[in-house]
Structures are given as C-alpha cells and as structure tokens.
Design goal:
The protein is of the alpha/beta class and 346 residues long. It contains twelve helices and eleven strands. Strands 1, 2, 3, 4, 5, 6, 7, 8, 9, 10 and 11 form an eleven-stranded mixed beta sheet that branches. Helix 3 packs parallel to helix 4, helix 4 crosses helix 12 and helix 5 packs across helix 6. The termini are far apart.
Length: 346
Amino acid sequence: MQRFVSSAVLPACFIIVLGVLLAPGAARAEDKTVIQYDCIPNYANWGGVTALYKQVTGVTVPPDPKGSSVAMAALEKEKDNPVADCAYYSGAIGYQAAQKGLHQPYKPKGWEKIPDALKDPNGLWWTVHTGTIAFLVNTKALGGAPVPKSFADLLKPEYKGKIAYDDPTWGGTSFTFVYGLNELMGGTEKDFRPGLSYLRKLDANVSSYPRESIYNAVLRGEVPIWINADGNGYKMKHVDGGPVEVVIPSEGTFTMPLVMGLAKGAPHADETKRYFDWLLSPPAQAEFAKSFFRPVVAGTLPAELAAKFLPDADYGKARALDLSKMAAAADALKKAWLDEIRGTGR
C-alpha cells in the first residue's frame, strides 16, 4: 500500500533543502544558459570560445546562425517578450541596435582596456575583437586564373561565377564591405552611387549572395573567392590546412570592430554579465585569436599567431569607418542594394 508521509514527520534539514529547491528563483539547470544571437561556430572561433566557457563554468551558449542584421531585427521583433540575452554584431549594426534602444548598459570587467573609439561610453556596446575585409581565395579552385590583387581585378571575365559575398541585409561583415567600398570609390553616407555602380559590374562575376556562413564551401573549393573577414581566411589556411590565400586589395580596405551588446530585458542578465566579464579575460581573448581575429585587449594575441598574418605593410591602406555614419546609412543602403543589385527591393 502506498504511504504518504506528513511534512510534520520529515527531518527539519530535509524540509529546508526541499524549500530551497522549490523556491521561486532557485538555481535550475536551464538557467545555466546564455542565449547569444549571431553565434556562428565557424566565425571568429565562437565554437571554440563557447566550448571553453562551458568547460570552465558549466554555462551553455548555444550556436545561432543569425548574421548581424538579422540578429538586430530579431531583437526588435521580440523586444516586448525578450528571448535573447545578448548579440554579436559588426560595429555599425551593433551601434544601430543600441540607437534603437535594444540594449541595456553594462561595462564588463576589463572595460578600461578597450580603446575609447571601440566602445560606447555608456556601455551599450563594446568591441570584443577586430577584423579586416579581404579576399579569401581558394587557389586550387581558381581553374588557372591568377590570384586577384585588387577590386579592379575582380571585374575581369576570368572570375565569372567565382566570387561570393554575403547578403549585406543578413550579415554585418558584408554590410561593412558594401559601405566601405562605397566610401573607397568616392561615395558618402548619403551618396551610394559610386559603390553600387561597382557592385553592379561585379554582379556579373558573383555566383551567390549567401545568407549563411559559406566558410566550409570556400574551404572545399566550391566558392573560389569570398569577400569576407581576413581572420576566416587565415584560419582556413593555418588551422584547416586549406589552399587559401588572404589578399588585402591594393586600392585599400576597411577595418571592422566586432561588438557585443546586452539585450534589454535579457532573461539571463546576471549570467550574461558574467559571460561578458569572461570574454575580455586573457583566456577568452586568446581563444578568439585562434581564429585570427585581433583581440581588443592589447597583449593577448600570441606571437606565434601574429607571425602568420600578412605583413603590417599590407594593412597600411586599411581604414577605420565612422560607425555613427554607417549606422545612420544602414537601412537606406541595404534597401538600395536590394533594389539595384538584387532587384528585390521592398
């Protein structure tokens, strides 16, 4: 016969423990999670970084396939019922998300080590590492064509069907490329004609405008040339052993801060703040560096990895872009790109 035991006869210590376990707000396994939008394992070594964080803290940060712009759109859609705790973006998109009121302030431990130009003074966004726009070239897949050295080279007929860059309405890296290219070609945050004119010509040689990471496709040679962050190319070459060269275009290129923002109304805000603190620690910064993205904290890029980058002279024409101007131009430039390059403006 089943027996029911009154709480009156239970040991006092058991009652206390039971009360703690059932109390509102008590620690639960599912609380040991941080939901980060734009957490792509093969981008910037987020896979390695989140695995290390799980190992040292027991906290899970699941992978998430959203690019920067999609992450911002999701935060905006969910602002009355937040799902995400934080997001990772290219600098201008993170700046824009903060301007839209999608973030809450937090200054993680190590804040003072971030250069002033790479963080919001109120803690609404901050840089975790930086990259540079480059050509990532699978030399084995070129079919005998030479390695392109310039934006002018990419327009040549021998590269027809060999080039891809991400849809800039999806990914912040590609938005940085499109905006920076326009500036390089003589455009401004209000005049997109020079950049779009070049991109219309380039369209003849572009095979796709992906809305997901094509890292593995480039590594396999399915896409010979990917315009993306330099770190992805160095990782393909030095970690994955692919026949990949990183090319800084001779006309110049653009540096890109990659930033974090704490979502307003984050369901696991305290856990996320601890995660942010860790992301600026030497172990986390060194783990990011394995993907050849430059850590924001000085002195955390291991010398053996620094030696595998192209010489500093190759980066001499890399320019920083004004994040406020980029953010102000973002919506209009994305629409113009859809209208003029894809013919699908909305």
